[in-house]
Amino acid sequence: MVVATLEMIKFEHTLFALPFAFIGALLASGGLPAAWQAGWIVVAMVGARSAAMTFNRLADMHYDKANPRTRARALPQGAVSVRFAAVFTVMMAVMFVFAAWQLNPLCFYLSFPALAVLFFYSYTKRFTTWSHLVLGFAIGCAPLAAWLAIRGEFDWAPVLLCGAVMFWVAGFDVIYSLQDAEFDRKAKLFSLPSRIGTAPALRVSEIFHAATVVLLFATALLTGLGWIAYAGIAIVAAILFWEHRIVKPHDLSRVNVAFFNLNGYISILLLLTFATDILIR
């Protein structure tokens, strides 16, 4: 059951959001946050992501059963029951809200609309081609939420970083959805590749990733970061460029390499370079 649950929520994908939450916390603190703050931020992240992912699996279960690529997932296969998934979703949502309450009142009040956004994403592909941006925004809130956990107030720096993550996630989600373009057309779903075609969708993904690089530079500039952070951003730009070279309209064989490997490197690289820059100042 534990293995099936971890597969259901794709726990390893936490790698995409958690490093950016740490970056937001580091920027807000101007160094290392207090241990109790870091701990509750991790609890909140795990709770929010687990609740959102399980809810998404429940909402999409009938599509997952029909899609050859996804029919082996835990819920369609019966490795995890619908009742267990529903209870697990509620438990993780409560854990998220409780962690937010432990951080500060603003985080507590915002935890409810945050959950609404996370759950709303699961239905967006049914009516809009821009579901990729909704997913990006949901994950992009991680650094903004971590900033609020430390400072308890909004600022432009975490908003820019939120935008950078939003476009980054949206860009690689478009690439990932190329695998399901034909199924989405038949199921009348609105993923970008299914609506405008593979080549145009890849061009939109490139625009999203260009926006990511611009917003990362703007974040570094606004927060007064140094050459280490800029070097990290430059390497990220090179990785994104390479990502778009290995996925081509007529050859999708390396989509998983682009999605899992390269984007995992990006989040860790940015955390290491931003953290180093912040901590040596």
CATH superfamily: UbiA prenyltransferase
Radius of gyration, whole Å: 18 Å
The fold-level CATH name is Tetracycline Repressor, domain 2
Architecture, CATH level 2? Answer: Orthogonal Bundle
Low-pLDDT segments: none
The span between the termini is 46 Å
Shape: globular
Query: What's the structural domain tally?
Result: 1
In short:
This protein is an all-alpha fold and 281 residues long. The chain has helices spanning 2-9, 18-29, 35-59, 61-66, 74-77, 82-103, 105-124, 131-151, 156-177, 181-186, 192-196, 198-222, 227-246, 255-279.
Walk me through the structure:
The chain is mainly alpha-helical. It has one domain (2-279): Tetracycline Repressor, domain 2. It is built from 14 helices and no strands. Helix 3 packs antiparallel against helix 6 (82-103), helix 9 (156-177) runs antiparallel to helix 14 (255-279) and helix 13 (227-246) packs antiparallel against helix 14. The radius of gyration is 18 Å and the shape is globular.
Please tag this protein with its features.
single chain; 281 residues; Tetracycline Repressor, domain 2; 0% strand
